[in-house]
Amino acid sequence: xxxxxxxxxxxxxxxxxxxxxxxxxxxxxxxxxxxxxxxxxxxxxxxxxxxxxxxxxxxxxxxxxxxxxxxxxxxxxxxxxxxxxxxxxxxxxxxxxxxxxxxxxxxxxxxxxxxxxxxxxxxxxxxxxxxxxxxxxxxxxxxxxxxxxxxxxxxxxxxxxxxxxxxxxxxxxxxxxxxxxxxxxxxxxxxxxxxxxxxxxxxxxxxxxxxxxxxxx
Length: 217
Ligand code: SIN
Ligand code: FE2
Description:
Mean pLDDT: 95
CATH superfamily: Alpha-ketoglutarate-dependent dioxygenase AlkB-like
Distance between the termini: 55 Å
Shape: globular
Strand order of the largest sheet: 1-2-11-8-13-6-3
CATH architecture: Sandwich
Number of helices: 3
Order of helices and strands: HEEHEEEHEEEEEEEE
Low-confidence stretches: none
Helix content: 10-25%
Structural class: alpha+beta
Bound molecules: succinic acid, fe (ii) ion
């Protein structure tokens, strides 16, 4: 067989998959942003390092987090909120780099949400075993804007449920470069991430990085 024939073998995974009304999985959408995105992330993490925050109930999260944008999502003894200041440094969060902003806006358009203007990007780092329990993203002021979620590094099982916590979630394998957009009728659907399986990603190493873009204010 020639290289041409190999090249012609399509990816078995469909490039777009509807998950619910208003929710779409865009496989590989972030790939073309990768070469600019990874150094931009390295810079953000240099200014605002990952930290494992505590929930209002006093539990330390297994996922380590940081933010970029005009506001960042934080959790501590007083609950969940968006704050313009990184509590660890006392300084504003690093600005959202143009490459991340563009990725989020273009993914939102591909998902049917024109005019998305994200002001916050929560950056989650999962090491093997880290997980995120089912929750709603509901600390934002305006639920008309979607959530745009970008996955990098090790694959993870994303759990996407329904409007009620008890709704049985469906499981989606998210790989490096995959983007999920959810909004409209599914904006407040419960979602989470199963414990990360161990592995080594060629570019990102032994971790998964997830970026969620939000319009918080
Ligand atoms: C989140 O809900 O903030 C994270 C989702 C993910 O890591 O895929
Ligand atoms: Fe979330």
